[in-house]
Amino acid sequence: MTDILTDDYSVKYDQASNSIICKGAFRLNGVAEYAPIAQLLTDVINQKPAEIILNLKELQFLNSSGINILSKFVIQVRQKGNIPMTVQGSKTIPWQSKSLQNLQKLMPTLKLDLEG
Question: Of 16, 52, 71, 102, whose CA is between 20 and 30 Å from 79?
Fold first, then answer.
């Protein structure tokens, strides 16, 4: 599994802490451009970790295509049925408070951890 590093954003998987760390701004166009990120997320699920922590605390911007990818990821985790998931975010980043709560509707057992 390969970390993704660009000038605009990064996505890293820390296997020791079962954390997917997203930083920067996701301004990609459509599913095709998000494919490497979606593949990394799927690879994490396929490893069947004891839990998944999605750390978005430093993700400043996420467009609708990015929200779609994260939503599909949450649904995939829910369908596995046995992987607890926590999404970490920041109340200081405007899009996160509203959008991240919607992920809980997709997976009611999802734990949302928003830091002030």
Answer: 16
pLDDT exceeds cutoff 70 at 60: yes
Q: What is the pLDDT of residue 1?
A: 65
Average pLDDT score over the chain: 95
Closest Cα partner for 45 from 17, 24, 20?
20
How far apart are the C-alpha atoms of 95 and 13, rounded to whole Å?
Answer: 23
The answer to whether the CB of 41 falls within 8 A of the CB of 75 is: no
Q: What's the predicted TM-score (pTM) here?
A: 0.94
Residue 14: count other Cβ atoms within 10 Å of its Cβ.
Answer: 12
Strands of the 111-115 sheet, one edge to the other = 4-5, 9-14, 19-26, 52-62, 85-90, 111-115
The dihedral through the CA atoms of 19, 66, 48, 111 has a sign that is positive
Q: Over 70: is that where the pLDDT of 88 sits?
A: yes
Give strand ranges (E) for 32-105: 52-62, 85-90
Write out the two tokens for 96. Answer: 């996160």
Q: Give the Cβ contact number of residue 107 at 10 Å.
A: 18
